[in-house]
Every structure is written in C-alpha cells, then in structure tokens.
Design brief:
The protein is α/β, with parallel strands linked by helices and 311 residues long. Helix content is 25%, strand content 16%. It has two domains: 2-93 and 278-306, 3-Layer(aba) Sandwich (Rossmann fold), CATH 3.40.50.720; 97-269, 3-Layer(aba) Sandwich (Rossmann fold). A seven-stranded parallel beta sheet has the order 8-7-6-9-10-11-12, sandwiched between helices. Helix 1 links the parallel strand 1 (2-6) and strand 2. Helix 1 packs parallel to helix 8 and helix 2 crosses helix 4 (149-157).
Length: 311
C-alpha cells in the first residue's frame, strides 16, 4: 500500500518508522507544492504533515486511488468536510494525551501560583514577597469537558495535587457525566478544562450563559479548539476580572498582535503548542502505524472518524 508522507523535518521520523512496515511503500511529498508527481498520485494513503496539517487538503483531488487519510492530530475538524465519502478518515487519538495533559496542569499551576505576576516583578528586580495572592490546587474541583484520551489523562493527573476531577462527555457513562448536566455542574467547579473535539454541537458551547454559570474567580483552560469558546463572551468576563483563562487555542487563530485578549488580566496564552515537546511527532506516527496496520489486515482502524462509504 503506497503512503504519502511529508518530506518536512518533523515528518522524517514518520518516513523512517513507516518505511520499516512490510507492505507499506513510503512516497515522500512536499505539502507546500500545489501539484503531485505521477508517482505521488498513485498513493492510496495520505498522511498530512505534523505541522500545518490542513495544507494538503487541495491535493485530495489529485489522488484517484486514495483509500485513507490518516491524520497526525486528535482533531479532525479541518479535514472532515473535505475528505470524499468513499475515503476513510482516521485521526491520531491518544498520541498526544500525555503532552497536552502536562500543558493543562502547567497552565493551571502557572495561574494559581501567580507566576506571570512574579516574572513581571522579577523583570524590575522587585522582591515581591507577599505581593501576590497565590492559591493552591489542593481541594479544587475541576470539570473536564471531553472524556477522550486527553480528558482522561488530565483527570488522572489531578488527584496527585489533591484536586477532584469530574469528566463530562456528550452522553453519560460510568464515571462520566452528560453534557446536558453542564448547567448544574459549572457553579460547583473552580476550574473548567476543555478537551472536547470541535463539532457543530460544540461550536460556541462556551458562550455567555456557560461563562456566567462559572463561579467568581474560576479558571477556564482551553486545550481543544478556539471556536468552542465565544471569544467576545470570554473577553467580557476576563476584562471585568471575574474569570481567568489559560488558552492554547483562540478564535481567531493566530491571534492578532492588537487583539485585546493579549492584555486581559488573568489570561495566559500559548500559540497552539500544548502538544509540542520533543518526541511528539514520533508518538503521532506510531499511532498512524497502528492505524495503517489495521487497514492492511482488512480491519477498520480504531481511530476512524468516518468509514468508507460508496458514492
């Protein structure tokens, strides 16, 4: 089975890994090129690049033999509308759960222990003993909205800090509350962590009403997608100082240099890099290897987003 793998630096580990799999033929391509070569057009599998994964979407029309699009991201929202119905789409669910969960805990502790303010005091050479109101994660209740691999990884790490996690998903199951219960859950949780996928139902889930239900001084952590949060509503709450936020994703993205979110008190922003640590690309490609091995064996890959359908 012929597999298109990006020639970019971050994808070299994937080309090497998949090149060792029997029955897979790796064909390199440049995601920045608008045209595929005749050899590249024979591929049955397209793997978008580790960085800027949306770039090869225009290449889909040049792949008449395409059977599978295997993503290196947990989110499939950038691709789901463009992948033809006869092509299987699979994501890399689970690959980045560890790094993203680590970012979530780092972001919470950064705001709770007031590191942004302390660093600003350091910049001026000020010994700011008792000049900030630090808090502890111990005893806090954390609502994790999204009970996939990343959400479960966040929930598993919180008890180490003495915090209590409540998982929420679209539908209830043992140990997981239903999304319909959010209005009653929000007032009793000091931290809300977003790890859910972007879908039509989750777009602007976090709106004025959602934020108003959060208690004073609560913290919103978005490690999912920017469009899940209604930016204007968050901006109003943050500018008033009632709520705080840690954002790895924003809407719009990238955030313009003059956007008021940058200067909001109690808001920290990272540029969509929660998963970006050494070794993450290999983690993503190892999941891709598992998915393609299943396809070679005639099975539906575990991370399928939509299965192949006849026209």
């Amino acid at each position: 089975m012929k597999v298109l793998v990006s020639c970019e630096h971050d994808d070299q580990v994937g080309a090497a890994l998949l090149g060792r799999v029997e029955a897979l033929e790796v064909i390199l391509y440049d995601p920045a090129e608008a045209r595929l070569t005749p050899q590249q057009q024979t591929a049955e599998v397209l793997i978008p690049p580790y960085r800027g994964s949306h770039r090869p979407i225009p290449l889909l029309a040049q792949l008449p033999h395409l059977r599978v699009v295997q993503l290196l991201t947990a989110g499939a929202d950038e691709w789901s509308a463009d992948v033809p119905p006869e092509v299987l789409l699979a994501n890399a669910r689970g690959a980045v759960a560890g790094p993203v969960a680590e970012w979530v805990l780092a972001a919470i502790l950064t705001l709770y222990r007031q590191w942004p303010a302390l660093v600003r005091f350091q910049d001026t050479g000020t010994w700011a003993h008792r000049r900030v109101d630090a808090d502890t994660l111990a005893g806090k209740r954390v609502l994790v909205v999204g009970a996939g691999a990343i959400g479960r990884a966040v929930a598993a790490r919180l008890p180490v800090f003495g915090a209590e996690a409540t998982l929420v998903a679209r539908t209830a199951r043992p140990g997981v509350q239903a999304a319909a219960d959010l209005p009653s859950l929000l007032p009793s949780h000091q931290i809300v962590v977003l790890t859910l996928p972007l879908t039509p139902e989750s777009t602007h889930l976090v709106d004025t009403g959602f934020l108003a239900a959060m208690p004073d001084n609560a913290l919103l952590v978005n490690a999912a997608r920017g469009r899940i949060v209604e930016t204007a509503a968050l901006l109003a709450e943050a500018q008033s100082g009632r709520l705080r936020a840690a954002l790895d994703v924003t809407d719009p993205e990238p955030l313009g240099s003059d956007h008021p979110l940058w200067s909001c008190p109690g808001v920290i922003i990272s540029p969509h890099m929660a998963r970006t640590v050494p070794g993450t690309a290999e983690l993503c490609y190892r999941v891709a290897e598992e998915q393609l091995t299943a396809v070679l064996a005639g099975r539906t890959p575990p991370n399928v987003v939509h299965e192949r359908r006849t026209k």
